[in-house]
Specification:
The complex is a heterodimer of chains A (181) and B (257). Chain A contains eight helices and no strands. Chain A is mainly α and 181 residues long. Chain A has a domain of 109 residues: RNA polymerase sigma factor, region 2, helix turn helix motif (Rna Polymerase Sigma Factor, Chain: A). Chain B is of the alpha+beta class. Chain B starts with 7 loop residues before the first helix and ends with a strand. Classes of the chains: A mainly alpha (181), B alpha+beta (257). Chains A and B meet through helix 2, helix 3, helix 4, helix 5 and helix 6 of A and helix 1, helix 3, helix 4 and helix 6 of B.
Chain lengths: 181, 257
């Protein structure tokens, strides 16, 4: 079974607590995952104040809509990381949120519950990225961390749209393969 | 992708929110009718989560925690509802003489509190329902997984009991219950390992187990990759620390019934 990262309550129990209005559960979840959320927001925005605002917004969204998290599909850590990246990109591009958190459903292959596991995952992701061709890595990073559309990437790099699309999907598939053994 | 390869590249962009305009609308329309591509989208989002989790940085400033908890307290859903109500009523009465505008404010607060109370009642009802369902599941599963349960395998009266394993796998929830009996005793420092053999790709570890003195064992919901279609399950003997790939020979194997 999944190790618990900190404290004694499971993520599911804490999210159930949120549904019942338990503010202590919110505090425990913040202590557990604010580092991940802040790291993702800061990576996108590069500004501590803006990153703090995104952290606040993400956790308030969780407080308001705890049922949006589907524990059957993956870890809370992964879900929060994806939500945070999306919100940070919206903030970076100064646009209204395009996707409601209730519509963000994801399946995650590895068990990412513990901090030790997270460190292992991070190291492995960096390893996979390091093996990609520079153009593929660059396209994936521009799409993910800068929120650029495939058209914008094609314009910037001077490469055909189809090439950009294929590179981005290929990069994601390489990551998936690395974690599926 | 189940024959929907024409959407493969666009789905990856969609998962990254990197698809715009007509192309995004086309994928939206397809997703509304294609469960296979919705599943692929969920997996692609899972792949993007790996990128996010690779981000490293300093811890957030401590002030953020208090800021969040203050905001949460302002939106409190349970006991604060009652306290806010009483306080609002008191101040509404005290300041009522100051003008009708304040009375209107009190009315608004009361309406909000009523809505919040209704949501609390709804949440409690949902929690109660979940607890009942969990208790019912425990009751049903107890004869299967309780170590004290008596396990009997019925075979032909002339047959010698053979090792037997049963895997119950629910792909869309990545849930697995595994039961085994008549399993041979293990050498020291060894354990049996269950493998999920996907339709494509390498076998995936699906849990370790050691049978009890009667040769019985069970595993409930071991950690599994998400939504993988299983072609078969197999059992090998491994070091008790587990293995990433199965060690030959395969001790037991079975496909779906």
């Amino acid at each position: 079974m999944s190790p618990q990262p900190q404290g004694t309550s499971t993520d599911l129990a804490l999210v159930t607590g949120l549904k019942a209005g338990d503010q202590g559960a919110m505090a425990e979840l913040y202590d557990r995952y604010s580092s991940v959320v802040y790291a993702v927001a800061l990576r996108v925005l590069g500004d501590t104040g803006a990153a703090e605002d995104v952290v606040q917004e993400v956790f308030l969204q969780l407080w308001r809509k705890p049922a949006a998290f589907d524990a059957a599909r993956g870890s809370l850590r992964s879900w929060l990381a994806v939500i945070t990246r999306n919100r940070a990109i919206d903030s970076l591009r100064k646009r209204r949120p395009e996707t409601d958190i209730e519509d963000v459903v994801l399946s995650v292959a590895p068990d990412l519950a513990g901090d030790a596991e997270r460190a292992r995952v991070a190291e492995r992701v960096r390893g996979v990225m390091g093996t990609m061709a520079p153009a593929q890595r660059s396209a994936l990073e521009m799409a993910y961390w800068e929120g650029m559309s495939h058209s914008e990437i094609a314009d910037k790099t001077g490469e055909p749209l189809g090439t950009v699309k294929t590179r981005i999907r290929g990069g994601l598939m390489a990551l998936r393969k690395a974690f599926q053994g | 992708m189940n024959g929907h390869e024409q959407y493969a590249d666009d789905l990856a962009l969609y998962a990254l929110d990197a698809l715009r305009g007509e192309a995004r609308a086309r994928v939206d329309e397809h997703l509304s009718t294609c469960a296979a591509c919705r599943l692929e989208l969920e997996q692609l989002r899972g792949d993007t989560a790996l990128l996010a989790l690779a981000a490293a940085g300093p811890r957030p400033p401590q002030r953020g925690r208090q800021r969040l908890l203050d905001a949460v307290a302002r939106e409190a859903r349970v006991p604060a509802v009652v306290r806010t109500s009483a306080r609002s009523l008191w101040w509404g009465w005290l300041l009522g003489a100051a003008g009708m505008a304040l009375i209107a404010c009190v009315v608004l607060v009361l309406r909000e509190n009523l809505a919040l109370r209704q949501s609390v009642i709804s949440a409690r009802s949902e929690a109660s329902k979940n607890a009942r369902e969990l208790e019912e599941l425990r009751r049903i599963a107890a004869p299967i997984i309780d170590p004290e349960a008596q396990r009997v395998t019925l075979v032909s009266s002339k047959a010698v009991p053979q090792p037997q394993g049963k895997a119950f796998y629910l792909r869309n929830r990545s849930s697995l219950v595994f039961l085994a009996n008549n399993m041979p005793a293990l050498p020291p420092h060894k354990a049996y390992e269950l493998w999920l053999i996907p339709v494509s790709g390498a076998p995936m570890p699906a849990g370790m187990f050691k049978p009890d003195a009667q040769g019985s064992a069970s595993m409930v919901h071991p950690v599994l990759p998400a939504a993988v279609e299983a072609k078969a399950f197999a059992i090998t003997m491994e070091d008790e620390t587990g293995a990433a790939t199965p060690t030959m020979p395969i001790f037991m194997m079975g496909a779906g019934e």
